[in-house]
Specification:
Helices cover 38% and strands 26% of the residues. It is built from eleven helices and 14 strands. Helix 3 crosses helix 4 and helix 4 crosses helix 5.
């Protein structure tokens, strides 16, 4: 097995996990680049959490191989735990201890040098400093989630695994967590993000992998949209007619064209290059162009299309 070394933070080859007769993850081969937010998407039971547990050495793989930060899973597990942080989907904290005491315990386990300083840094960073002496059992779910993120970052890991970090949070707390993800990305950290929130993945992730026991695809959200749907531009006109549409459809760079009321919906690969020519043609033909916009498919559309195609294939 050949690994890419410094070009990747995570690399797997045919990573597989079985629980008896159940295959949770099958022949997973992927790589995650330094400094990117990599989104890992899939339905419940798709193997996302199992993958995270293997990569963080909480469970061992059945077969295949993986490296994390250059260390091999199954051989260098202690080193992997030292250089990664993890937020699990249901983070366990000591409810009868204060927030500060919880983080202090974990900072010692991580062998953090400046325990007091790191605990204060992250409690302040996530807005919990004023509640540092309160028992965690009295915290809301959002506060516990933020405290668990503090725990994952105490030892300043270069790679952070976040499993459903905004699950069940109110909009304000979820936004705070998203902003925090962007901040730690700006510091150069790599983030492996499991989420069901597709809008969140679209905004945060450089690339996404769609998973359903097997890896379906990996690409940027923009590239996945273009591969599945192409790019479509909508020209809003004061009045539109089929004769004008026929002239537009005849242009060599137009892949598809349809009229919807007084709008032309045009498929083309490079709107930035060809939109000016289209506007000129329409104006010269006497059309009043009111405005131009791009028809944008959501990441949810992409995701459901990919998952649906896989389910049809499996059937």
């Amino acid at each position: 097995m050949q690994f890419l070394g410094g070009e990747t933070v995570i690399q797997t080859e045919n990573l597989t996990k079985k629980f008896g007769d159940l295959t949770a993850v099958e022949n997973l081969s992927l790589h995650v680049r330094p400094g990117e937010v990599f989104g890992f998407l899939g339905p419940n039971g798709a193997g996302k959490t199992t993958t995270v547990r293997m990569l963080t050495t909480l469970i061992g793989p059945t077969s295949g191989a993986a490296t994390v930060n250059g260390f091999r899973v199954g051989q260098d597990d202690i080193a992997i735990r030292r250089c990664t942080g993890i937020l699990t989907e249901t983070p366990g904290m000591y409810d009868r201890l204060s927030a500060e005491k919880n983080l202090t315990i974990f900072a010692h386990l991580y062998e953090v040098e400046d325990v007091k300083g790191q605990v204060e840094k992250y409690l302040r960073f996530l807005g919990l400093w004023d509640r540092r002496a309160d028992l965690v059992g009295n915290f809301s779910k959002g506060m516990k989630q933020k405290l668990a993120i503090c725990r994952a970052l105490l030892h300043e890991p270069a790679l952070v695994f976040l499993d459903e970090p905004t699950s069940g949070l109110d909009p304000e707390a979820a936004r705070l967590v998203r902003d925090f993800i962007e901040e730690i990305k700006a510091e150069g950290r790599t983030i492996f993000l499991c989420t069901h929130n597709l809008d969140e993945a679209d905004r945060l992730c450089d690339r996404i992998g769609v998973m359903k026991q097997r890896l379906i695809t990996v690409d940027t959200p923009a590239n996945l949209r273009q591969k599945l749907y192409g790019r479509k531009v909508v020209f809003h006109l004061r009045e539109a007619d089929d004769a004008l549409l026929a002239r537009v459809r005849a242009l060599p760079f137009i892949k598809e064209a349809q009229r919807v009321d007084n709008k032309f919906v045009l498929g083309l690969d490079d709107p930035e290059t060809y939109n000016p020519a289209l506007v000129r043609l329409l104006v010269e033909a006497g059309a009043d162009v009111q405005f131009v916009g791009e028809l944008r498919h959501s990441l949810e559309d992409v995701y459901l299309s990919l998952i649906g195609a896989t389910e049809a294939y499996d059937a």
